[in-house]
Design brief:
homodimer; Maf protein
Amino acid sequence: MPHHNPVLDHALRTPAFIKLAGKRVVLASNSPRRREILRVVGLEPEVVPSTFAENLSQRDFESPYEYPVATATHKAVEVYERLVKEDPEDPPDLVIAADTVVLSSVTMPVPGTSASLINEPIPEILEKPSSQADNLRMLLDLNGQRCEVVTGITIVYPVLAAPGYAIQSIDERSFVYFADSPVHLLEAYADCREGIDRAGGFAVQGRGGLLISRVEGDYNNVVGFPVTSFFHWLEELIEEDEDFLE
Amino acid sequence: MPHHNPVLDHALRTPAFIKLAGKRVVLASNSPRRREILRVVGLEPEVVPSTFAENLSQRDFESPYEYPVATATHKAVEVYERLVKEDPEDPPDLVIAADTVVLSSVTMPVPGTSASLINEPIPEILEKPSSQADNLRMLLDLNGQRCEVVTGITIVYPVLAAPGYAIQSIDERSFVYFADSPVHLLEAYADCREGIDRAGGFAVQGRGGLLISRVEGDYNNVVGFPVTSFFHWLEELIEEDEDFLE
């Protein structure tokens, strides 16, 4: 069955883009930012947002870095299974899902640990602010400090062995350093409400960029999709597994 | 005389944006990327590209970091003086110019220096590639390495004392780390010709992003305008000098 070609004319002529041409590639996310990052490099997947509730409990994970990978995996598998069920004759060739969390560093003394570990920061996942006042409180905490942005990416694709699909994941981590901003700048940002719907309470690619002095890592990861690691990973999978995307 | 208001509705309500409202603000650059970075945070200056030839000799500068600052200063002064001459009754309130260069790190043994200095890298300014083959050569040099992006920003604004204007400058430096890409990816990028017209031979905000694993610094600086430092600087100037932008 012919599909919308996900590979745009301006895509680089690399093995990954050549293999993806004409395939059914699905992005399990409705985020306009993720779609734009992919579009810039020449990939325009079909968009099928996941219905997964994104309600995993943070307490079920030993490390907060596992959380976005687990959420991305639930999203990708839900969309893959749903599309196969809807039309078993036309399964997706590749489903891509991503989840991004913002981790704060808080210093928590842990009883019974050695001195060198007492000041080891234990990252915790920052939620979306519930109000402008809550956003201001979060920005005051972050001001002059850094946080860490972690994106989990999971791909699901058909294989012959049961259950008929394979799941693979990566995660990408970037540090975001906040400038030492005057309080009136933080107040003005909280007032503009851009940060209300954002994990961590800021949008690096918007007016929130004015609060951020530097990023250490992939900037696109902070926006929501680490596109460089994603494509280098696809190129490796193609090299290692001749059946991948065939 | 009423001007196009350079401050957009979505700008943060900070002292700098409040002072800039209704003022004649001029960007001495036709770069769509610089205009877009400023537009995102709410500033839309009048655009008057400089006619300065950008032909300063690198050999006239002790340090390559001085070069973009000098070019930005020539651009800003040329535009300011031209606009004042064209209409002495309506001088600009603020002219903003920027120049971005890409510095490579090359290891050059310096005779007579101590051992610890022998491997000190001496940065040199990377030019725009002259052809696809030249672009590929530059990308092979950068692959798995880092380069440094430096933007000089100069502002010119009216003061009572001769010559009737003041000049101030900052520079911003960011490191760009290239992934260890397979040669076929570098070849595909050179083939797409996106890098031909770019200093250093790549565009971080385009398909060239696929070659770059991380940035250490302000991402917008690598694109061409360090907007965070620029606005924090304006806020400081307002605080220090009550006549600034009055």
